[in-house]
Amino acid sequence: MQDSFLHKGKRKILVEYLRDKIGISDINVLKAMNEVPRHLFLESIFEDFAYQDRAFPILAQQTISHPSTVAEQTELLELQEKEKVLEIGTGSGYQTAVLVAMNTWVYTVERQKDLHDFAHKKLRELHLRPKFQSFGDGFAGLPTFAPFDKILVTCGAEILPTELLHQLKVGGKMVIPLGKTDEQILTRFTKKSEKEFEKEEFGAYKFVPMLNSTNQ
């Protein structure tokens, strides 16, 4: 698949929808989502629908999130250029690509080998390369590269993974869906000190579950 003028036109309409209907106001988020070709992260049978605000199945019985969810999560991070961002759950690589397009230093972890391999290939093809891409256990994070300015968890956790909070800089933010498998609350933690965190909640969502270990 190529990134045609038709695809670019559909992306422009999607970005206008995200701005006007969803309320995304971060110009850098909108700019990145206008640049990243979402259809290239999907199976070709979904190409015509790639710029609708819909989730789609991907490899390993996972899903690519709604564009509005990607935009909302990314906006909540309040990203600045050159910040170190840890992403838990690379998935197909679409969210990763958006973070890279925002000129941040992305470190990303995926537990599903098929998805890790797909995303690695796709991101290289698009020249949207994270600083580090790992096949591993998201609950463990990437302590070797810590601390991080921001952490984004793209799957729903029933229990708060405290190891990730330890890998966050003081002043940093982590965005994570928390709750049972049928519904999670999108939550943001801001690290005020080594032992103090501010917690904010931003409504109910449905994500694939966050699982430990890896899956070949």
UniProtKB/TrEMBL annotation:
Statement: the UniProt record of this protein carries the keyword Cytoplasm: yes
One Gene Ontology molecular-function label: protein-L-isoaspartate (D-aspartate) O-methyltransferase activity
Location(s), subcellular: Cytoplasm
EC assignment: 2.1.1.77
Coiled coil feature spans: none
Alphabetized PROSITE patterns for the sequence: PCMT
Record-linked Pfam families: PCMT
Enzyme class, first EC level, given as a word: transferase
Entry's family note: Belongs to the methyltransferase superfamily. L-isoaspartyl/D-aspartyl protein methyltransferase family.
Entry keywords, A to Z: Cytoplasm, Methyltransferase, S-adenosyl-L-methionine, Transferase
Cited PANTHER family: PROTEIN-L-ISOASPARTATE O-METHYLTRANSFERASE, PROTEIN-L-ISOASPARTATE(D-ASPARTATE) O-METHYLTRANSFERASE
Name of the protein described by the UniProt record: Protein-L-isoaspartate O-methyltransferase
Cytoplasm is among the record's keywords: yes
Chief subcellular location: cytoplasm
